[in-house]
Each structure stands twice: as structure tokens, then as C-alpha cells.
Amino acid sequence: MIQSVYIHIPFCQHICHYCDFTKFFYNEQLATEYLEALSNEVNVQVSGEKNPVKTIFIGGGTPTALTHLQLKKLLSLISDKFDVWNCEEYTIEANPGDFDEEKAKLLREYGINRVSLGVQVFDDVMLKELGRAHRIEDVYKTVDLLKQQGLNNISLDMIYSLPNQTAEHFERTVKEALSFDLPHYSAYSLQIEPKTIFYNRYKKGKLHRPAQEEEVKMYEILKKNMKQAGLKQYEISNFAKPGFESKHNLTYWNNDYYYGFGAGASGYLPGKRTQNIRPLPAYIKQAMDDGKPVLRIDTIGLKEKIEEELFLGLRKLSGINKNDFQSKFGFSHDLLYSNEIMHLKQKGWLIEDVETIHLTEEGILFGNEAFEYFLLEDNDLEAIALTKK
């Protein structure tokens, strides 16, 4: 069964200086054409109506940049195709300041039960430098408006290690975010991605990022304050009150299957990963022609599936469940990784107990280096095949 659905809405009223997601300046006519193409893609790829799924996530871009009528059309499409009322988690991404009462009511009426707000930082000057359109007061107004409509499952997203940011400055952002007493928070270190405004500044030596030691200090501040506020860290960048962990994101980290619809969207189906066409005119044309606007399909064999199981699963603080691995692949993880696990334990990056293997706090800081130990050679699987004969 396909667990989850991701739907990409690529339109923004403003383009943030750090963002490398598939996004375009909002244009009403283009957005209308896009929704028609998206509808055709979904209907071609998924037959029937009211299909059961565990989670739905509308991301962007900025989905709430759509007009009220366009947003209603989008939500109607999703409601017709998927059983939203029995869906465990139905999330939409939004920017503070994008809502009026009418839009907030629309979300509730169509079954959305979770909103992820891109707050980034509680500093108006820094928000402007990031290219964000909202200001601090918009966060307060938006959270209040959502709660008035009964939308209490709200997540605030933050970014740290911003240009000219100090650890003390970031701690003020964390404390103000926690003052909302929301059930979920995410915080990500700024990544300088190609084809962004920040990347161009960085190449010219005009973007001054905090030193690595300062970034580590910010991460420690984040963890400390979240723990003090009663929020449990369940993934490298995510914290939640019990029961409010993001079920949709856990689909990714558990390496489960999901649809990906829209320009630039990725999907994971049995045996393959797909990526859609990114340029908007090309996506619209192909989606309208045959409903299959796929740019590339990568075959996921056993080797790739095992590697991804480790890379993604170790992002969770709970790590990899040994019994689950055995059930999924038919053999113990020890047959492939006993030496690697022993080495990582000696480095102090990994802990192994009766049921799980998971990264230590130090291991999380060196996560990408730790993940490299779990890359496989083709002959590793050949050896497994021989032992099973």
C-alpha cells in the first residue's frame, strides 16, 4: 500500500534568498493552468475515488499563495481522490500572514488537521535579509487565527546558522518560538544551495556565515531548550510533544512508499523513485498530454533499498529496529554491517542495544560521515545470497 501523498504547489509571492525548491512567482492564470495539469496527473496516476492513505502533505513553494477559489479547487481535488476524513495526518505548508479567516475556514472544512508555518527566525531585520515577506507580528496573528478555527496542530519551522547570526541571537528565536506552546517544532541549519541568491553572494565572498563551532553551539541550544520545554527530539531536526510527531515525515524516514505529484515532486513506489519535470511550462504540457510528467525514474534494487533504510532510519533518534530490518529484508543487519557498527561504536558515534542501533549525540553531529559507512558494494549482497542458499 502507498502510505502517503505529497503534492507540490510551486508558487510564491516572494522568492526567499536561500530556497532551491521548485518555485515560481505567483501568476493567477499560470496557477489556474497548473491546477488543471496537476488534476490530470493525479487522476491518471491514481484510479478511483476516496483512496485510503495514512498522510497527505501539501508543500511548496507556498500553497497558501493561491487565491481562495484556487485553494478550494485544489482541496476539492484531493478530497475527491483520497479519503481525507480517515487520513491520520493532513498537512499544509504556509507562510505567516498568508491567511484570512475565509482561507483558514477552508482548510478546516476540507479536512486539513495540521499546518506547518515557515517562521524561520524571530527578527524582522533578518527576515527581510532572508527575502521573507512576513514579519514577527504576522506569526502571532496567524497562529491566533488558526487556533480560532480549531487548527491547533501547528508546527513552527526555524533556520539557524544564518548570515551574521550568533548563538545568543538564535536562542532568543527558540525561546520566542517556544512561548507559543505548540506541539511541534523543526529547526534546520542553513544550507547554501546552487542557483540561489545566497549562493551567488557566497561565491562573491559577500555572505558571512557563523563558524562551525558557533553552529554546533546553536544546535546544542536548540536541543537544550526543547528538552526543557517538554518536547522530545525524535529526529535530527524535529521535536514534538508526545503523539504529535510528523507522521508524514516519518513515512520518509521509515523508507515507506509515497506518491509525489506536481512540478519537481519526488515519489517512492515499489522498486523505483520518480522525479517530475521541474520547469512549469514543460510540466503543464506533459501533465495535460498524458498525465505522466516524469523527468526520471531510478530503479531501487536491494542494495539501494538497504542503504536508504540505514541513511533514513538513522536520522530518527530511535534509530533502526533490528527486528524490523530482519522482517523487511529476510536477514540480520549483522551479515552486512557488523564491522562497520563495531567501528562506529568505538568512535562513539553509534549505540547498539538489544532492539536497535542509533546514533549518539556526537554521531548526529557527524551524521553524513557516519552514513558513509553503510554504503554497500555489489559483492556484499552476493555474499548474503550465498549464505542463504
Low-pLDDT windows of residues? none
**What is the assigned CATH homologous superfamily of the largest domain?**
Aldolase class I
- Any idea what the CATH architecture of the largest domain is? Alpha-Beta Barrel
Quote the CATH topology of the largest domain. Answer: TIM Barrel
Average of pLDDT: 92
Number of strands: 17
Question: What is the 3D shape?
Answer: globular
As a percent range, the share of strand residues is 15-25%
Share of helix, binned: 40-55%
Largest sheet: 9 strands, mixed
Protein model, in words:
The protein has 389 residues and is an alpha/beta fold. It has two domains: 4-253, TIM Barrel (Alpha-Beta Barrel), CATH 3.20.20.70; 319-388, Arc Repressor Mutant, subunit A (Orthogonal Bundle). It has helices at 28-45, 68-81, 101-109, 124-130, 136-148, 167-178, 197-203, 212-228, 247-253, 280-290, 302-313, 322-329, 334-347, 361-365, 367-372, 378-388; strands at residues 4-9, 11-12, 24-25, 55-60, 89-94, 114-120, 154-160, 184-189, 232-235, 238-240, 258-261, 266-269, 272-276, 294-299, 320-321, 350-352, 356-359. Strands 9-10-8-7-6-5-4-1-11 form a nine-stranded mixed sheet, with helices on both faces. Helix 2 (68-81) runs parallel beside helix 3 and helix 6 (167-178) packs parallel to helix 8 (212-228). It is globular and about 55 Å long. The two termini are 30 Å apart. The relative contact order is 0.11. The model has no long low-confidence stretch (mean pLDDT 92).
